[in-house]
Design goal:
The complex is a heterodimer. Chain A has 18 helices and 22 strands. By secondary structure, chain A is an alpha/beta fold. Chain A has 2 domains: 236 residues, 3-Layer(aba) Sandwich (Rossmann fold), CATH 3.40.50.300; 245 residues, Rossmann fold. In chain A, the strands form 5 sheets. Chain A has a 6-stranded mixed sheet with strand order 6-9-10-3-11-12, sandwiched between helices. Chain A has a 6-stranded mixed sheet with strand order 18-19-20-15-21-22. The relative contact order of chain A is 0.11. The mean pLDDT of chain A is 88. By secondary structure, chain B is mainly α. Chain B has a single domain, classed as ABC transporter involved in vitamin B12 uptake, BtuC (Orthogonal Bundle), CATH 1.10.3470. Helix content of chain B is 75%, strand content 2%. In chain B, helix 3 crosses helix 9. About 2% of the residues of chain B have low confidence. The chains are: A alpha/beta, B mainly alpha. At the A-B interface, helix 10 and helix 13 of A face helix 9 and helix 10 of B. The structure holds adenosine-5'-triphosphate and magnesium ion (MG).
């Protein structure tokens, strides 16, 4: 195979201030290959790919495309070489059509009229690109009418519509559920058929083992091995990643204290119908279902983030209502939002300032903030969730994706909440840290904190929850507790409901 | 590496020093005590407006009504320290003296706060675009100023206490320069050391996340507009005391100069980043450039072009640093 590589990265080095992100990494990519990169949070995966895309300059090393050394200094250099990246939190034009998004910046013009948009041609060409990927998406549909997963596929189409040779997907599936991920994998297969190479970064090892032709493991900014498919087992990969065996979190025994919180008759027109549930002290309650089941909206509605009607809500035996997140916080309920970039992180501020956001509320009456106390409280929390950082005074953008997620958990823990609502608590977090976070969640529950959680991964819900509410089409279709809480049971219920819908 | 970071962080200061040295060598009578104090005097009054505006901008909004608030406040203040009210449209037979002075001091602030309150209420209630809302306020308040002044220019601060605000000196430097510096420090502390200040940054950096984190967004936004209104009124009082005159047209275009200083100071118009001290440096830098142009007898038409170039440069720098941070 030697000599055939489409891309070679050699001895790539990168430091940020005092942090060594990459210490001489080699990485190869063959034509039509799916090459996965895995590694702990902060191992340098995103940095390596951002260098390839011209987002960061490298400090040392070389990049060769088809054996020729190339200089990639700006994103446009990478694009010219056919290298494109799909960011996890991509920027698109949600009020424009799919076609306009795919061809943005390169809209076809009518012959002879350089200012006139040729919309027929635009739709045809978009349909052609979508067809190559076998995507059943209407080119004329407005982008915001699509699900996040479909929007992501539109991003792939956008990349493909230009000259594309290498497509990089950095944690593309981290917010997708099983079915949506499968659609993405089908799309990747279609790309392979066209001879396009894919670099695939993910923390979901199962899918990596399934789709990757080769797997490269990064640890602390170094390549610790590249393995062809089928030549390595999951446990060995994890050990290469972490440098140690995986320590699984010890599941807490299901307990059921007194009811601390209850919701009766939560409805969102057309989305959620009459959802009721109780939450007990020290309990972990999972809410799950496929996308469109209404689980996300139900949780948003509950916290005053989506207009909803609730017949009755009780907290510690008293009737309450939450029309705004601050009402929830006053009741001791904290909320981990489903989107990191849009709904959680404050860019340009430091890690400390990001972590102490909720804590600030608890000292708001005192007006003048004690810097020392803020520092101590943030550091304590950040350490508890083991955030890997140069220091709490660095900008939050310097944290790797998974470490930003951990920082957000630290933010919730800083205020000693009574109830915690967690949307996808381990999104983008590596396998080792995932177990650490599970351990923290169990620990919280043992201390008497009650937890409501969802996840795009059903196994995560069943791993964590004492009790699970299964939703479909806005209805609660089942409630499983104790030994019934298994992934198989949930999947069976969900598929049954889906099948029933198709027939009825 | 270290020096580079320092330069990036203190970019305006560096530009300031370089320009200062150049001007000192090449611009006649620039480097004289008189002229340097002049620069301070000229930047101090609008500097108060700039300092207040900075907070609004960090929260992700902009207040374009400040120039009009300056004129309205100036007209009100002068009207009430003025013995001869017959010049104006105010029918009031009060005499010169204490109660009138109290009004002269308090009414402008009340008006500034009220304008800020209304701006803030509308903008926070509807999350409306602050440019449009405060542009409306600019027009309305200017109208109010012209109405009260009766279209005339009013002269003569009769009250000695009031006059002192503009005339008193300390070490040959006007007292209001010290007031300006003190105000900047107080506002900077408000931003850096209080929960209110932190909330200003949070709202500017990510409004949606701030709402989810339970930040009292409306209250903080309203307060930022009240502060910019109050600071504009404060500037007006000193302006009147110094110039000894007021009219419905005074302070015209100050919103532009103030926004320029804020942007030069590195406060992002998109919010979430900035500081009063930096805006302070920005204000002095802009004043110094204009001052040098005046000394060089460059026609004022070119001064407008120069301001445009300055603001363009600052915005480009803002975009660049933003890209590097991303
Ligand atoms: N802009 C930056 N400034 C400073 N340090 C940075 C910056 N970007 C990344 N780093 C640091 O470089 C290291 C590698 O980060 P990178 O984002 O590549 O990790 P990653 O492997 O993608 O992790 P994750 O799985 O969490 O996304 C981390 O220690 C991170 O803190
Ligand atoms: Mg990453």
């Amino acid at each position: 195979m030697a000599g055939e590589a489409l891309l070679r990265m050699r001895e790539v080095r990168k430091t940020f201030g005092g942090t060594v992100a990459l210490s001489g990494v080699d990485f190869d990519l063959n034509p039509g290959e799916v090459h996965a990169i895995i590694g702990e949070n902060g191992a340098g995966k995103s940095t390596l790919m951002k260098i390839l895309c011209g987002v960061y300059p490298m400090d040392g090393g070389s990049i060769l495309v088809e054996g020729e050394p190339v200089r990639i200094q700006l994103p446009k250099d990478a694009l010219a070489l056919g290298i494109n990246m799909i960011h996890q939190e991509f920027a698109n034009f949600s009020k424009l059509s799919v076609a306009e998004n795919v061809f943005v910046g390169r809209l076809p013009r009518k012959a002879g009229f350089p200012l006139a948009l040729d919309s027929r041609d635009l739709l045809l060409r978009t349909a052609e690109v979508l067809g190559r990927l076998r995507l059943p998406i209407d080119p004329g549909a407005r982008l915001d009418s699509l699900s996040v997963a479909q929007q992501q596929l539109v991003e792939v189409a956008k990349a493909l519509s230009a000259n594309l040779r290498i497509l990089i997907m950095d944690e593309a599936t981290s917010s997708l559920n099983l079915r949506e991920s499968e659609q993405l994998f089908a799309t990747i297969e279609a790309l392979k058929v066209e001879g396009i190479s894919v670099v695939y970064i993910s923390h979901r090892l199962k899918e990596v083992m399934d789709i990757a032709d080769r797997i490269t493991v990064l640890r602390d900014g170094a390549n610790v091995g590249t393995f062809p498919r089928g030549h390595i087992e999951e446990a060995a990969i994890i050990e290469a990643m972490l440098g140690r065996r995986l320590r699984a979190a010890v599941k807490k025994a299901a307990t059921r204290g007194p009811t601390v919180f209850s919701v009766t008759g939560l409805s969102i027109p057309g989305k959620v119908r009459n959802l009721s549930f109780e939450l007990h002290r020290g309990e972990i309650l999972g809410i799950t279902g496929l996308s469109g089941s209404g689980k996300e909206l139900a949780i948003r509605g509950l916290y005053g983030l989506w207009p909803s009607r609730i017949e009755r809500m009780e907290c510690n035996g008293e009737q309450v209502s939450i029309s705004h997140p601050s009402d929830g916080l006053s009741l001791g309920i904290t909320y981990l939002a489903e989107e990191r970039k849009n709904m959680s992180v404050f860019p340009q501020l430091t890690i400390r300032e990001n972590a102490s956001v909720l804590w600030m509320r608890s000292v708001w009456r005192r007006f003048v903030v004690s810097r020392r106390r803020e520092r101590e409280a943030s550091l304590q929390s950040l350490r508890r969730v083991n955030v890997k950082m140069a220091g709490a005074e660095s900008p939050v953008d310097s944290l790797s994706g998974g470490n930003q997620q951990k920082m957000l958990l630290a933010r919730l823990l800083m205020v000693q909440p009574e109830i915690v609502i967690l949307n996808d608590p381990t999104r983008g977090v590596d396998v080792g840290s995932k177990q650490e976070i599970y351990q923290i969640i169990y620990q919280l529950a043992r201390e008497g904190v009650s937890i409501i959680m969802t996840s795009s991964e059903i196994p995560e819900v069943t791993a964590l929850a004492d009790r699970v509410i299964v939703m479909s089409k806005g209805h609660k279709i089942a409630e499983l507790s104790d030994a019934e809480v298994t992934t198989d049971n949930v999947l069976a219920l969900v598929t049954q409901a889906a099948a029933a819908d198709e027939h009825g | 590496m270290k020096l580079q970071n320092l330069l990036r962080r203190e970019a305006i200061l560096a530009v300031f020093i370089v320009l200062f040295v150049i001007c000192s060598f090449f611009v006649p009578s620039f480097f004289t005590a008189r002229n340097l104090i002049n620069i301070l005097k000229q930047s101090a009054i609008i500097g108060l407006v700039v300092a207040g505006l900075t907070i609004t901008v960090i929260a992700g909004n902009v207040d374009l009504s400040v120039g009009s608030v300056v004129s309205f406040a100036a007209v009100i203040a002068l009207t009430y320290t003025h013995a001869d009210l017959s010049q104006t449209n105010i029918s009031m037979t009060a005499q010169e003296g204490r109660p009138l002075l109290a009004l002269a001091f308090s009414l402008p602030f009340l008006m500034g706060a009220a304008v800020g309150l209304i701006n803030g209420l509308i903008i926070s209630r509807f999350q409306a675009n602050s440019v449009i809302i405060t542009l409306g306020a600019l027009s309305a308040v200017r109208g109010g100023a012209l109405l009260v002044a009766g279209g005339k220019v009013i002269y003569g601060v009769k009250n000695p206490v009031f006059a002192a605000l503009g005339q008193a000196q300390l070490f040959t430097i006007p007292v209001y320069v010290f007031i300006f510096v003190a105000a900047c420090i107080v506002l900077e502390l408000l931003l850096r050391r209080t929960s209110f200040g932190r909330y200003v940054y949070l709202i500017g950096a990510n409004l949606k996340a701030a709402i989810i984190a339970g930040v009292p967004v409306a209250r903080v936004q309203i307060l930022t507009f009240v502060i910019s209104g109050l600071m504009a009124a404060f500037a007006a009082l000193i302006l009147v005391a110094r110039l000894n005159t007021a009219s419905g047209l005074i302070g015209n275009g100050w919103e532009f100069d103030a926004v320029t200083a804020v942007v030069i100071g590195g406060t992002s118009l998109l919010g979430g980043r900035g500081s009063v001290i930096k805006s302070f440096q920005g204000a002095i830098l802009v004043t110094m450039i204009i001052n040098a142009m005046v000394l060089l007898n460059i026609p004022s038409s070119y001064q407008y072009v120069a301001k445009a170039l300055i603001i363009l440069t600052a915005v480009l720098i803002d975009i660049r640093t933003r890209r590097e941070a991303a």
